[in-house]
């Protein structure tokens, strides 16, 4: 399913983050994070709740300011924020048109900038609801609107924060297909931030594992997915693998893995977040082991 | 019958002035979630500026336009102080607008003194079904109709209007798509200032304006805005017209002493009915 092309060494990265530190007051949310995204590449960023994924997204798109380090975005970037974040009082069509807001004054005619027809071609399910208020639509439809709204700014890099959050597996699969098509046909680079690591690793060619504000592992998605430690910590495959040396770190038969929880839960719950944080030590160890393996 | 028509038209004229104040409150609240207690001040500043300019010999029309423009600038300044600093909560901004409204008293007394002043409105009268109506009331109604049509066009048809609504609907998402929420808030304050100023210059020939006239204006405007749930400009207009007509009827058939009390009592009853209806809808949904 890895649709995107592997990065070429002679191509300038569209996103380059070096030694990024972001703080909320005294708390450090991101600590020396570095990552890169090549043109047309699909990159996954996985990790539990509270790892700093959304902070990283908001820093990439300029909503948050880094305390130190550098963020270079060399292409037009757009964001699909966590939780869809609709303009609930406005129609689907209005939501899409506002996606082109940042293109104002950039040469092209306003009429062309406001043209939503190509987005409806890409996401045809939205055509019949275009005049409905976005606030009253289902989660899946809202996520499509959020993706379409981001596409309206004609981005070369699309950052998607929790594509699958609160959505049924079939809808997630449909959205994933649309993303793959977008990446393949328009060459749009995608940065996919996900708790559902299985989905992210399947969809993207490269991945970063973020733990407690640090990059704990990085590499080809296939290699990371093949790592027993990553599989145990993120893919819910503890039962299929030999028991780890420290039995206390094992999530156990009654504790579904993050992926299973993501697929089963209709929406994030405090319990999910708490459990994810509870698995943090295990995940950190797994990520570190994977990094050692990669080296 | 002719008395009733006179009270109705004059009530609608007063209601239009209230609607302009109320729509300014709604517009600012809709974009910034701030209840702007300086809204009445904009009307006073607009009216007194226009009167001063008329006194210097400037013609009608130009003086009123400049009065509205000054009120818009004052609105922008209030906005800069109230929401210009990133992260200011709507509650803190509300207190800032209240403080600025009081500070404005001192400035207004220094500039224009503490006595009420009024301007000469559109002269003449027309006879409608035997009722003699001052032309100025018809001017107020016409201008207000045009302004509300423009506001409906702004919010219903333009990207700028949609962006203003987006800031209120979801400020975070607005930032995500590249809309500057602060800039939009300042635009809302400037438009709110202009709407307040317009109310002031239109009402000045009917009611003399003094530094403390803002209290009556904001009370009526706020009542109308609450009828519009601080969000719907059309319902705010309806509430304001009801309020204006009710006040005119009470003053005409009863006593002018009780006009505000009775009218506000009616609005209060309307609000209680509205709240009960909302409560029952929520209970049904639950």
From TrEMBL, chain B:
Coiled-coil residues: none
Tree of life domain: Bacteria
CDD domains: TM_PBP1_LivH_like
Intracellular or extracellular location(s): Cell membrane
Keyword Membrane listed: yes
InterPro entries, sorted: ABC_transp_permease, BCAA_transport_permease
Chief place of localization: membrane
Keywords: Amino-acid transport, Cell membrane, Membrane, Transmembrane, Transmembrane helix, Transport
Membrane topology: Multi-pass membrane protein
Segments passing through the bilayer: 6-27, 34-54, 66-85, 92-113, 133-155, 176-203, 215-233, 240-272
Family: Belongs to the binding-protein-dependent transport system permease family. LivHM subfamily.
Protein name per the record: Branched-chain amino acid ABC transporter permease
Taxonomic lineage from the root: Bacteria, Bacillati, Actinomycetota, Actinomycetes, Kitasatosporales
């Amino acid at each position: 399913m890895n649709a995107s092309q592997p990065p070429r060494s002679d191509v300038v990265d569209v996103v380059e983050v070096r030694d990024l530190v972001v703080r909320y007051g005294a708390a450090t949310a991101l600590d020396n994070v570095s990552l890169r995204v090549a043109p047309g590449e699909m990159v996954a960023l996985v990790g539990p709740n509270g790892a700093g994924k959304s902070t990283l997204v908001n820093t990439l798109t300029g909503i948050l300011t880094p305390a130190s380090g550098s963020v270079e975005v060399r292409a037009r970037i757009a964001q699909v924020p966590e939780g869809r974040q609709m303009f609930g009082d406005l129609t689907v069509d209005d939501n899409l048109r506002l996606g082109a807001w940042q293109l104002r004054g950039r040469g092209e005619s306003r009429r062309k900038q406001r043209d939503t027809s190509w987005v409806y071609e890409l996401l045809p399910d939205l055509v019949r609801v275009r005049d409905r208020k976005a606030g009253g639509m289902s989660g899946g439809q809202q996520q499509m609107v959020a993706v379409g709204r981001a596409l309206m700014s004609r981005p070369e890099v699309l950052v998607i924060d929790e594509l699958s959050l609160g959505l049924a597996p079939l809808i997630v699969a449909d959205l994933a297909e649309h993303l793959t098509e977008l990446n393949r046909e328009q060459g749009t680079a995608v940065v996919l931030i996900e708790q559902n690591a299985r989905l992210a690793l399947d969809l993207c060619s490269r991945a970063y594992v973020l733990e407690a504000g640090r990059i704990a592992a990085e590499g080809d998605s296939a290699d990371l997915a093949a790592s027993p430690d990553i599989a145990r910590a993120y893919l819910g495959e503890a039962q299929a693998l030999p028991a780890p040396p420290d039995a206390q770190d094992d999530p156990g038969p009654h504790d579904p893995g993050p992926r299973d929880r993501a697929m089963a839960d209709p929406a994030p719950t405090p319990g999910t977040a708490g459990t994810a944080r509870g698995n943090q030590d295990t995940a950190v160890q797994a990520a570190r082991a994977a990094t050692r393996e990669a080296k | 019958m002719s008395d009733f028509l006179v009270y109705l038209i004059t009530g609608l004229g007063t209601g239009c002035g209230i609607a302009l104040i109320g729509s300014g409150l709604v517009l600012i609240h809709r974009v910034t979630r701030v209840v702007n207690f300086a809204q009445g001040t904009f009307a006073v500043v607009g009216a007194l500026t226009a009167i001063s300019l008329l006194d210097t010999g400037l013609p009608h029309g130009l003086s009123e336009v400049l009065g509205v423009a000054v009120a818009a600038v004052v609105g922008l300044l209030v906005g800069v102080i109230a929401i210009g600093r990133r992260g200011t909560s709507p509650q803190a901004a509300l207190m800032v607008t209240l403080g600025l409204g009081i500070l404005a008293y001192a400035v207004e007394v220094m500039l224009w003194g503490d006595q009420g002043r009024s301007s000469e409105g559109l002269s003449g009268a027309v006879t409608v079904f035997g009722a003699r109506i001052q032309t100025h009331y018809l001017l107020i109604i016409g201008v207000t109709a045009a302004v509300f049509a423009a506001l409906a066009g702004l919010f219903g048809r333009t990207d700028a209007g949609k962006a203003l609504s987006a800031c209120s609907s979801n400020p975070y998402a607005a930032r995500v798509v590249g809309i500057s929420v602060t800039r939009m808030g300042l635009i809302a304050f400037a438009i709110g200032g202009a709407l307040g100023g317009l109310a002031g210059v239109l009402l000045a020939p009917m009611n003399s304006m003094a530094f403390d006239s803002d209290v009556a204006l904001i009370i009526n405007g706020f009542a109308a805005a609450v009828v519009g749930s601080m969000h719907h400009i059309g319902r705010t207009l309806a509430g304001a017209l009801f309020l204006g007509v009710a006040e005119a009827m009470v003053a005409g058939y009863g006593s002018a002493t009780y006009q505000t009390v009775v009218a506000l009592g009616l609005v209060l009853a309307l609000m209680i009915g509205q709240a009960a209806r909302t409560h029952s809808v929520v209970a049904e949904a639950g």
